[in-house]
Amino acid sequence: MKKIKMQNANQMTLEEVFEQFVAATAAKGVKVKTLSTYKQHFKAISKRLNPETPIVIVKETSQNPKRITFL
Cβ neighbours of residue 56 under 8 Å, at least 6 residues apart? Predict the structure, then answer.
């Protein structure tokens, strides 16, 4: 699967990036059940990681997974 390229991704929140991912995935013809599962997983993750977190912070901390902290 090709990587999704986003412009100004460093200024986006985790939630905005997720919504773009879902839209791009839906455009590829993925089943509704799959999209629903993705949304359920994001909701679960959002309980520990604020969806308004700038994606740049997630990128920086994901370079060393032991350093990721939940808000």
Answer: 9, 10, 11
Give the pLDDT confidence score for residue 71 in this predicted structure: 44
| Cβ-Cβ contacts under 8 Å for 18 (sequence gap 6 or more) | 42, 51
User: 14-27 and 32-46 are packed helices; what angle lies between their axes, rounded to 10 degrees?
Assistant: 170
C-beta of residue 2 within 8 angstroms of C-beta of residue 39: no
Task: Return the pLDDT at 55.
Answer: 79
Q: Is 8 left (phi over 0), alpha (psi -120 to 50) or beta?
A: left
| pLDDT above 50 (res 19) | yes
Domain range list for the chain: 9-67
